[in-house]
Amino acid sequence: MDYRTNYRKWLNDPRLSAEGRKELEGIAGDEKAQEYRFGGELEFGTAGMRGIIGFGTNMMNVYTVMRATQGLAAFISEQGEGAKARGVVISYDTRRKSDEFAKAAAGVLAKNGVKVWLFGDVHPVPMLSYAVRYLHAFAGIMITASHNPKEYNGYKVYGEDGAQMSPEDTEKVVAHIRKIDDYLSVSGEEGSALIQAVPDKLDEDYIEELSRLRLSPEAVKKCGANLKLVYTPVHGSGYVPVMAILKKLGIGVTVVEEQTTKDPDFSTVKVPNPEFKETLSMGIALADKIHADVVFGTDPDSDRLGVAVKNDGGEFVALSGNQVGILLLDYILTRLEEENAMPVGAAVVKSFVTTGMAKAICDDFGVELFETPVGFKFIGEKIKEWEKDGSHTFVFGFEESCGYLRGIHARDKDAVVASMLCAEMVCYYTYLGKTVYRRLCEIYEKYGYVLDKNISVQYSGLNAMKEMNAVVDALKGMKVTSLSPFAVEAVRDYSVPSRIVCATGEVQPIDIPACNCVYYELEGGSFVCVRPSGTEPKLKIYYSLRAPDEATAEEKLGELKKSVDGMLGKAGKN
């Protein structure tokens, strides 16, 4: 069925809502809009689905949400009555239509005889992950588009372990979803007795659980009340829990009041992504005004934390996700060692595109480092694996995209616990008479400077995802011996079968879940990695450069980028 037929079918269907009909009537003369909305289907993968809000098969709307939920309900029903009775926890953030989508999903599950635990107000990703385990539910749903622009929303599914659903189970859910050709045929049951509110006590227990992960209570006791910390939830779901944990620890915090409102348009920022200094700009302005020490910002679903600190010149600089990650890693391992609390089999997990600095730190502390593909679900799977076999003890996990986790209360990125740890870390270094920025400089001095830089190439249109994947596929067939100014020592192809091809011609297998990604090992421990985003129409290029100092690294980065751009240009023509 072509997009024109699909468009007319939806437009003329009496089951379509008045809102949907009005919106589709508005594009009656816009062939390009019709093709984008109806020329394909919103892809449901291991990260769920994410798209622009609007009506059509390739958009995020109540019908695509209910269709996906019907597929999930069918999968749960296959697992038996016990799975249906354990039910599904549903949470949502502050984005447009998040609450509507959450209630629609709850209704579909209830109509299928599946119990539902529904949060009564916005709650972040880590609390949804925590709730699945807390309530012994079979699965979880989070309505969010994370850090994407305001036009987006999304749908994530979690397994019973609190991690995003495994690829194997996701395939089964997708198979059920694909059986539903008539999007508007799925309906829900409102007001069902199977839909229950998540107990309020869960919020208290979550905060209590986080407080057990404290590492420097003495430093917090001496410095916490006087700490000048500015926090912005960027109109998202982190406001209540982040403030609650900081208050419990006795850490002083000033909020950016204008950004505490649940504004689905995120009207005070260009994009609600705390990775960008611009997103923290109101927090930094307030921090300058009150002479604060540090600025925190969380994204709409509060799984990412952005941090800005003062440099030696007293100017606020936004730290990258890699820099916050190595600071937290160094802090956590330092405190565990100082307190003789390093667990047996201590292990750290990071995605393979995250800074190479992590290995140097872990090696120094005698802690084993594991790498996974991009996506925190893979870190969650490591935690689950070690719980079963007892081979390692999870200490810390992080990704370069501002995602961090300490503790096993959740199996996804947790900006609430990261906020607590960062605030505590500031207190610890204040107690020692130094700044966080000075500690970062000390880390570079000890292990060598590493410049980590991520660049995204934006794609658009209905075939954006296919075009990005085609570029990466083309790279796999290209023989690359150098990326100026570096020699290429090996090329990792993470697709099936995953393998490393060394410059010598030797081929080594990679024991890691498959993904469409090409990774170039460069001389001296640097690397470049190219992968298509799984959630946005962006081709991502990750650079990690070892160099004597920042100036040298920046100079080499400029040359390396030109070389990589040339390689990508050739790949795009294939």
Present the secondary structure layout.
Blueprint: H1 3-11, H2 18-25, H3 31-38, E1 49-52, H4 62-78, H5 81-86, E2 88-92, H6 98-111, E3 116-118, H7 125-134, E4 139-143, E5 152-158, H8 167-178, E6 195-197, H9 201-211, H10 217-223, E7 229-232, H11 239-249, E8 254-255, H12 281-290, E9 294-298, E10 305-310, E11 316-318, H13 321-338, E12 346-351, H14 357-365, E13 368-372, H15 376-389, E14 393-399, E15 403-405, H16 415-431, H17 436-447, E16 449-458, H18 464-476, E17 482-483, E18 486-493, E19 499-502, E20 507-509, E21 518-522, E22 527-532, E23 538-547, H19 550-573
Parallel strand pairs: 2-3, 2-4, 3-6, 7-8, 7-9, 12-13, 12-14
Antiparallel strand pairs: 1-5, 4-5, 9-10, 10-11, 14-15, 16-23, 17-18, 18-19, 18-21, 19-20, 21-22, 22-23
Helix pairs in contact: 1-3, 4-6, 4-8, 9-11, 10-16, 11-16, 13-14, 13-17, 18-19
Helix content: 40-55%
Gyration radius, in Å: 24 Å
Q: Got a strand count? A: 23
Largest sheet: 8 strands, antiparallel
Number of helices: 19
Percent strand equals 15-25%
Ranges where pLDDT stays below 50 over 5 or more residues in a row are none
Which descriptor suits the 3D outline?
globular
| Distance between the amino and carboxyl termini | 30 Å
Instruction: Please state the structural category.
Output: alpha/beta
Overall average pLDDT: 95
